[in-house]
């Protein structure tokens, strides 16, 4: 789940636009 | 007056800013009944995560942002996310939430295990932001300015970031002069909040630590 990710991971994933992956 | 280019820039930023929405399935959890410290913690964590995702979407649309070096993009977002979230929370507490929701959110924050030494200045900040009577345009521009701060840690190409931030500062300054004729210091007041936001950013890591320990 997203809540287990750190800030940088969330940013990197959101920047790449594949957060649902 | 704003030049036609500045008006376009403002409209474009507002359009992106208004697309920011925390998914309803996340925000509706706020209204659920359970109020244990653990449940509050989980809800706030999920909201914060969602908030960051929404913030990244807004940032991607900022003019020129995607032309920056990829690692600089990440450094800008990492450096500003907490400040942008405090700004957004200030806006939410002061004008965005339906009646009653702000009280619920405040209650969850106050009963989530965060110590009063962090809570008190936080709500003081939200209140003092409310007193500035900022428009949505000002929140949007200030958020973009916060994100495009060239002096964050680990930025390689500060000059390019500065070039993106400058036109936004110019629009905000003009906008303040046009819409806050009663207070010639309004723009200076807004810039003063940026210093305050930096302080929150510095305290944020300590706050998370105390939250986890509790």
Task: Note down, in words, how this protein is organized.
The complex is a heterodimer of chains A (21) and B (214). Chain A has one helix at 7-16. With 21 residues, chain A is mainly alpha-helical. The longest helix of chain A is centred in the middle third of the chain and has 10 residues, at 7-16. In chain A, 48% of the residues lie in helices and 0% in strands. By secondary structure, chain B is mostly helical. In chain B, 74% of the residues lie in helices and 0% in strands. Chain B contains 9 helices and no strands. The model of chain B has no long low-confidence stretch (mean pLDDT 89). Chains A and B meet through helix 1 of A and helix 3 and helix 4 of B.
Task: Give a short summary of the structure.
The complex is a heterodimer of chains A (about 20) and B (about 210). With about 20 residues, chain A is mainly alpha-helical.
The helicity of chain B comes to: over 70%
Return the average pLDDT of chain B rounded to an integer.
89
Number of helices of chain A: 1
Protein chain pair with the most extensive contact, residues per chain: A-B, 11 and 16 residues
Task: Reconstruct the topology from this structure.
The complex is a heterodimer of chains A (21) and B (214).
Chain A: H1 7-16
Chain B: H1 4-18, H2 24-27, H3 37-60, H4 70-96, H5 101-110, H6 116-131, H7 136-147, H8 158-179, H9 186-213
